[in-house]
Specification:
InterPro entries: Chloro_Bact_Ser_Proteases, PDZ, PDZ_sf, Peptidase_S1_PA, Peptidase_S1_PA_chymotrypsin, Peptidase_S1C. Belongs to the peptidase S1C family. It is a single chain. The chain is of the alpha+beta class. Among the domains are: 2-35; 163-244, Thrombin, subunit H, CATH 2.40.10; 267-350, PDZ domain (Pdz3 Domain, Roll). It is 18% helix and 37% strand. Strands 1-2-3-6-5-4 form a six-stranded antiparallel beta barrel. A six-stranded antiparallel barrel has the order 7-8-9-12-11-10. Strands 14, 15, 16, 17, 18 and 19 form a six-stranded antiparallel β-sheet that branches. A hairpin with a 2-residue loop joins strand 16 and strand 17. The longest helix is centred in the first third of the chain and has 26 residues, at 2-27. The radius of gyration is 34 Å and the shape is elongated. The N and C termini lie far apart (118 Å). The model has no long low-confidence stretch (mean pLDDT 84).
């Protein structure tokens, strides 16, 4: 009996083995041709796309861009005491962990209250720290934890042709990303408060105060406005593809001055002029009446050669130097008038907002 059970066990094993082998040959044709099985095909990964994406850059910078809602109270007309509440829409950029936010001054101008909507859905009331009308920048402050300052470089080195993205909240549709290139770069001196970065990244109502970032998510500027002109009927219209942002370095300096001093202080002498093509110096073309330059005796037609014995290289750097000189500082101007060299002492004034 025992021998029969052993034989039956072997016979049953052979039958089961033959059946399994037949099934394997049926399911894996390669074995019937002796080519073997490529087991790596059993562990294939999903194909990796080679598409170009800036998802990582947006992920680093977008949480730092907030929506700003400024509420103001307006009278309907001069002959009525009734008033209505008006909400202005804009964007802002979280610049520091302690809650300082940069935005545009025109976004919060005349606001009775300001609310900041973070990307994690928190809505926090903000206070105005200060503003600068020349650069159209304002600094806000919120008290909040777990906020994310935008990635920043001390010197972004923005170049014409660089890829950029504008992040903001156009038409209150929610955070939106548009892309373009830098069409023209702006200088960063305090005197040059209208020489912004020009880009073709689309800006619409609500984008003002948002972030212009590079392909790695670093802040290049604070988006400001698109270019406008008049049509044949003298109506204001937007110009597609011409948009502006305040350069990061200038915006950062303005913000720091506002936080420390409550305002941005710029020096001024009250003259304008043109530089020469092939030699140093600035030909004075206008002197404002009652200005420091006028009171010191600077005249139209004078040629400014040096300030404090530093030769004038170009008009832009000269204006920046004057703007960054504290008001009340005495400067020595080297001037040529009717082929005679003169030295004039002038006290730097403060650039006003008039």
């Amino acid at each position: 009996m025992a021998g029969q059970r052993i034989l039956w066990f072997f016979f049953r094993s052979i039958i089961i083995g033959a059946i399994v082998a037949s099934l394997i040959l049926l399911l894996v044709p390669e074995l019937r041709h002796g080519s073997g099985v490529a087991f790596s095909s059993l562990f294939k990964n999903e194909p990796v796309s080679n598409r170009l994406s800036y998802y990582d850059a947006v992920s680093r910078s977008a949480p730092s861009v907030v929506n700003i809602y400024s509420v103001s109270i307006e009278n309907n007309n001069l002959f009525s005491s009734t008033s209505r509440e008006r909400t202005n829409l804009g964007s802002g950029v979280i610049m520091s962990e302690d809650g300082h936010i940069l935005t545009c001054y025109h976004v919060i101008n005349n606001a009775a209250s300001i609310f900041v909507a973070l990307q994690d859905s928190r809505i926090i009331e903000a206070e105005i720290v200060g503003y600068d009308v020349f650069t159209d920048l304002a600094v806000l402050k919120i008290n909040a934890e777990n906020i994310h300052p935008i990635p920043q470089l001390s010197e972004p080195n923005t170049r014409v042709g660089d890829f950029v993205m504008a992040i903001g909240n156009p038409y209150n549709l929610g955070q939106t990303i548009t892309q373009g290139i830098v069409s023209r770069t702006g200088r960063n001196g305090l005197a040059n408060y209208v020489d912004f970065i020009q880009t073709d990244a689309v800006l619409n109502q609500g984008n003002s105060g948002g972030a212009l970032v590079d392909s790695e998510g670093y802040l290049l500027g604070i988006t400001n406005a698109n270019f406008k002109t008049f049509d044949a009927q003298r109506r204001v219209r937007d110009v597609d593809g011409v948009n502006f942002a305040v350069p990061y370095t200038l915006a950062k300096r303005v913000m720091e001055d506002i936080i420390v001093n409550g305002k941005v202080t710029r020096g001024q002498l009250g003259f304008s002029g043109t530089e020469y093509q092939d030699k140093p110096g600035i030909l004075i073309s206008n002197v404002a009446s009652g200005s420091p330059a006028d009171l010191a005796g600077v005249q139209v037609g004078d040629v400014l050669l040096a300030i404090d014995d530093k030769i004038i290289s170009n008009a832009a750097s000269t204006l920046d130097f004057i703007a960054e000189t504290p008001p009340g500082t005495l400067l020595q101007l080297t001037i040529v008038r009717e082929d005679k060299s003169l030295t004039i002492q002038v006290k730097v004034g403060e650039l006003g907002t008039d």
